[in-house]
Amino acid sequence: MKSFLLLCCVLSASFAYAQSSADEKAVLDIEKQRFDAQITKNYTVLEQVLSDDLIYNHSNGNQDSKQSYIQSIKDGKQRYDAIEAQEQKVRLYGNTAVVNGICQIKATNNGQSINTRLRYMDVYVRKGSQWQLVAWQSLKLAN
């Protein structure tokens, strides 16, 4: 009986770890899709990945909603040329994932070229089978 209980515990822990690893990978995949969509102006992907109640706090102190952020890309106020993830760590809390990372951004913001490193924190929530970004904050790092 003790062997059976031990086997059940080991199998349960193994399943939980496998699920956790799969969720971490799914969140990192969504993060990459979002970065690519920002560069290629793929509004369909941005509409899917960004939650309707997104709050994005930019490194310059400005704040955007999903709608205003996507509109800034459409209007050409915000243009991304490259986003290179340098560090990423995912922590899972049930249906919520927190991503802490560092990335190199090459972009144009209101006509001004930007080439900077950012430390960022993203909060994703799983809604059904889809992970969506609900909060996003970045901070400029010294180059």
Automatic annotation (TrEMBL):
Keywords recorded for this protein, A-Z: Signal
Q: Pfam families per the record?
A: DUF4440 (PF14534)
Signal peptide annotation: 1-18
Under the heading SUPFAM superfamilies, the entry gives: NTF2-like
Domain spans labelled DUF4440: 27-133
Highest taxon listed in the record's lineage: Bacteria
* KW Signal (keyword) present: yes
Looking up InterPro entries in the UniProt record yields: DUF4440 (IPR027843), NTF2-like_dom_sf (IPR032710)
Spell out the protein name for this chain: Nuclear transport factor 2 family protein
